[in-house]
Design brief:
Layout: E1 23-30, E2 35-40, E3 46-51, E4 57-61, E5 68-75, E6 81-91, H1 96-107, E7 109-116, E8 121-124, E9 130-136, E10 149-157, E11 162-164, H2 169-178
Antiparallel strand pairs: 1-4, 1-7, 2-3, 5-6, 6-10, 7-8, 7-9, 8-11, 9-10
Length: 181
């Protein structure tokens, strides 16, 4: 039987204590089957996403403070363990073209790249993808009702979400923008 053990520690800094929760309003969505490979730097960050021909991402904009992404550890009855990546997103679908995107998301297998409020980029569903598991939209009963399309996406992965970083925030964002279709 293989022996699994911890091989390093985790420190905390003053900057760690000033971290914000939440995501910024933009994120990127794509098809994991269009990723040929990832390039990792020496520190374990994804520094490049290598797409197949015509592969890339689409940008989505959501209302401020309305989306979240994370993971849950799953321990299966057989003893295997993995990370279930999840994302809850809200979108304003106000045209037939927007409706078509929501309809595509219902049946698509996708990965998401989200931007945290700490100027970090995380890739959810990078290898196996995320599938829509829930969705809703309602007109509400009053003016202040939430009228967004709300989707929950989930998918199992062997590892935590990848961290995407190249040099600094501006360089990383510029690289992400070059992936946009």
């Amino acid at each position: 039987m293989a022996t699994c053990k911890v091989t390093a520690g985790i420190d905390i800094t003053c900057d760690d204590k000033r971290r914000l929760g939440g995501l910024n309003s933009r994120f990127w969505i794509g098809d994991p089957t269009e990723i040929d490979s990832f390039t990792f730097d020496g520190d374990g960050y994804v520094s490049e996403i290598n797409f197949s021909t015509y592969g890339g991402t689409f940008t989505m904009e959501s209302p401020d403070n309305s989306c979240s992404a994370g993971y849950e550890v799953v321990v299966a009855e057989g003893g295997n363990k993995f990370f279930n990546h999840t994302a809850a997103i809200k979108l304003f679908a106000t045209t037939p073209a927007d409706d078509a995107v929501i309809e595509e998301m219902l049946v698509a297998n996708s990965f998401l790249i989200v931007e945290t409020q700490n100027q970090e980029f995380l890739i959810y569903g990078a290898n196996n993808g995320l599938k829509t598991t829930e969705g809703s939209q309602n007109s509400g009963a009053e003016d202040a009702s939430d009228v967004t399309d709300t989707l929950t996406m989930a998918g199992g992965e062997k590892l935590k979400p990848y961290r995407f970083f190249d040099t600094d925030f501006a360089t990383t964002l510029a690289k992400l923008e070059t992936y946009e279709l």
